[in-house]
Amino acid sequence: MRxxxxxxxxxxxxxxxxxxxxGLGHPRPCxxxxxxxxxxxxxxxxxVNDWIIVTGSGLPHPGHDVxxxxxxxxxxxxxxxxxxxxMADPVLCHHAxxxxxxxxxxxxxxxxxETVWNQGPKxxxxxxxxxxxxxxxxxxxxxxxxxxxxxxxxxxxVPALAARWSFDPAMVDGNWQAPATGVxxxxxxxxxx
Length: 193
Fold this sequence. Notes:
The structure is a single chain. The chain has helices at 15-22, 32-35, 66-80, 124-129, 144-165; strands at 6-11, 24-31, 42-44, 51-55, 82-88, 95-101, 104-111, 115-119, 181-187. By secondary structure, the chain is of the alpha+beta class. It has one domain. The chain has a 9-stranded antiparallel sheet with strand order 2-9-3-4-1-5-6-7-8, sandwiched between helices. The protein starts with 5 loop residues before the first strand and ends in a 6-residue tail after the last strand.
């Protein structure tokens, strides 16, 4: 099963609550296999093990504007509770993992050729998976090749971290039956006061 490059995992059993929080307009059913590709503005999955996956081009990318990403996640978390964001770009090796609980950032790390967000203490899962998080402006004296290897290893470990924190969307395969349909739509969320 495919995994999107950027996705949210929201601890919820109500996709309607997520639709409302995003201000999703014109919702339409969409098969999981199509929606999970991230090609729509927003795809909201049905609940899987008490988690709902959200993906799509409407999600703010930590590398484009980390402040927008921060405000989006905090605001969404204030409305929905526990929200996580993951990014794993296998080509550029950009990666991120963020946990926000009731509007408070518990842990955030985002690397897009440099550290753009590093907040909160490392989680036990990060330590056990041996992911490297650099401070702002830090590269620990690594040359280009060593840095590439480290960031590639981090990007490869994001799905394992997602599985430990919440849910890896690619785990919906032969072991679990893929939920039949989710919902796609456009959002006016960014324009609300």
